[in-house]
Amino acid sequence: DAGITQSPRHKVTETGTPVTLRCHQTENHRYMYWYRQDPGHGLRLIHYSYGVKDTDKGEVSDGYSVSRSKTEDFLLTLESATSSQTSVYFCAISDSGLGGLAKNIQYFGAGTRLSVL
Amino acid sequence: AQKVTQAQTEISVVEKEDVTLDCVYETRDTTYYLFWYKQPPSGELVFLIRRNSFDEQNEISGRYSWNFQKSTSSFNFTITASQVVDSAVYFCAPPNLFFGTGTRLTVIP
Lengths: 117, 109
Fold this sequence. Notes:
Chain A is mostly beta strands.
C-alpha cells in the first residue's frame, strides 16, 4: 500500500471555526491532491500541488486554502468552516500531473470525515 | 469543456452474472488515458485499471475487461462472473483531473 496518512480521520467542529487537515506521504511523489466526496457528486478536486510551495485551485476551491512546505506534507485549511463543508475529504498522490497523456495512477489516503455543526 | 458521464447510478446483479459499467468521456483531446477506481463499502479508493484512447482493442485482466469505442468516446468496463466482493462504487476518471459521479454495483448472493 502507498504510504499516505490522513489526519485526523474524523472531526466534528462548529461553524466559523478554523480546521486543518493533514496529508502525509512517504512515497516522495511530486503531485498531491485534495478531493471532497459528497453524495451525488463523486469526487471533486479542491486544490492540488505540483511541488513544494507550488499549488493551484481545483473545481471547488472556494473556502479552502492549502500549503505545501515539504514534499511529504500537504495541508488543507478551512479558514472558517461552514455546514456546506461537511464532507469526506480524500488526499491523493501521483508521480505525474494533470490531463492528456498523464498516465500515472493516483493513490488515495483513507479519508477524513468532517462534520461542521 | 471536458465531461465524464456515468449514466448508471446503481446496478444490481446476481452473483456469477456478468456486468458492464459505462463511462463516456467528452473531450477535445484525441489521446489520453482513462482510469477506473473502486470504492468498496469500507470507503478506501483503489485503482483498478487504466486504458488509453488510441487503442480500441479489448483488454482483459482476470475477471475484468475493458473496451473503448472511439466513435462514442465510451469506455465500457465489464466484470465477468461477478462476486459479492465486487459490490462497490466504481468511478471513471481522466488522469488526475476529475471523477465521474460513480456507479454503485450490488452483487446479490
